[in-house]
## 1
Amino acid sequence: MTGAPILFASTGEGLDDFERFHADRMAGRILDMGDILTLIEQAEKKMDAEEAEKVAPKAMAGQLTLADFLSQLQQIKKLGSMKKMLGMIPRRTDARADRELSTSARSTAWRPSSAR
């Protein structure tokens, strides 16, 4: 026991998966209570705010095109796996939904060839 504080925690295998350690947030993830603050911080770092501000009025007016929707999905993809993101949202544990999310082949099947 060194008495040194824990500064970082890894949530995956890559270098991008290191984040500041917050004991209350980690406890929330373990107890399936979510971690909305970390999700918001990651979204602020990785998503393009200008693109989101450009698309928001279209979405609110009901004029969102398929190209706009695709650009938003690409922004969301920057956050990492859907399973990891859903782990940060408070929810009831559902093992079947987790298994369905682990298949990522479906997520690329619908894209037009120009977007790949």
## 2
Amino acid sequence: MLLVLLLLLLLLLLINYYCFCITYSIIIVIILLLLLLFSIVIIIIIIIIIIIIIIVLGDGYNFTVRLVGYSNSTTSLVQGRLEVSFAGIWGTVCDDLWGQDESNVVCR
């Protein structure tokens, strides 16, 4: 679409150069305004895409885990409270339905 507008603009500029006509001048101004509008829309789309990429790939999805208040007994069991940092905020993991499989995943 932009290429068509540019070619039409070039053609009208050539015609207007050889035979000045106010109609061609108005059409040229309209085409220039359309090109400006398309450029602004494309820039806004690119900015939105960049913001989405920053949000998705940014630090918001990095997280850290830690074990707080743990005691390592003589057995192989370690007890404590598991906390997760998401977007810089620490929170406690709920222990409902928590078992050995979940513990193994966290300890990796």
